[in-house]
Structure formats: C-alpha cells, structure tokens
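In this supplementary section we document a worked example of the pipeline. Step one takes a protein sequence of length 177 as its only input; no multiple sequence alignment statistics are reported here. Step two produces a three-dimensional model, which step three serialises into structure tokens for compact storage. The input and output of this example are shown verbatim.
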Amino acid sequence: MTCIVGLVHDGKVCMGGDSAGVGGYDLAIRADEKVFINEEFIMGFTSSFRMGQLLRYRFKPPYHRPDVSDYEYLVTDFIDEVRSCLKNGGYARTDNGEESAGTFLVGYRGKLYTVEGDYQVGIPADGYAAVGCGDQIAHGALYATNGSPPTERIKIALEAAERYSAGVRGPFVIKDM
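The serialised model returned by step three reads:
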C-alpha cells in the first residue's frame, strides 16, 4: 500500500502522499494524511497508519546539539527517540532479537532522508525518493520530470503510481517545508 514521494528544491523539502489504506484485497480511502509536519520535520510514512499516528502525535524530536551534523543527529538521537516512541506505542516488532518498524521519509533543514524498517537512515543521491508499493513507478516519473516545478513532479509521480499500482489512490496530499 501507499506511495510517498519527496524531493529537495531550492533548499526546501516537498513531499506528497496518497490516501489508500490497503489490507489484502480491501481498499479504504483514508482522510488521515500520510504526510505531515512535526516541529522542524516533514514526514511521510508507509507500512502502517499506527506508525504514522505515533510519529505525528506522540514523537517528540530530541534536542539537536549544535556540534552534531544533521546526518549524525538523525542516525543517533533522532532514531533513538523514534525507536522509543514506536516501542512505547506498541508498534515496533522484535523477531529473533532484531527490532524493526516501518518505512518513512523525513525532510529536515532542507534535506531529504529515508528511514528503512531496520532504522537505517539514507540520503538519496538524486535529491528525491519514493517509498511504498508505488515507489519504483514514482521514481521513474520523478526522473522523467526533472526540471519541472516540484509540486508538479510530485503530483505526476503520484498519479503514475496510482495508474499502475493497485495499492495507491488519491486524493493526494502535498506539503513543503
């Protein structure tokens, strides 16, 4: 289920997401948005609405010490707090001693990051990323629309994912920060 798309343009992060809630062959269009702003962060999630609810309403971003780079902050203090939030909210899973959660995009201080299910933090080299079942379709659309306005690129990527993935549906929510 889902397609979340993010890109960096002129020092801002623009992010969009669909509204599908999918379980097996069932599809529900949800009014609770998958893309949101939490303090200095713009986030978009896939995997579980519960994870998104915790990140949006329960997660409190930790203090970013000025002597620590943005990336180091994200892979340490930020992720430690995400893990704690998801564990306390009953979402994080442990299988054979390995903890995991879901996948989401994070925009912070004009940069875009991916957070994978094992909590690794990635930096997309192309300045854009997509996650969810429509991610590869959206990546192709983002590549093909390079040079177009950011909101238009995201809309086209989400529309392409909706057209060719059974788990992606509008309406689309697009925000920037």
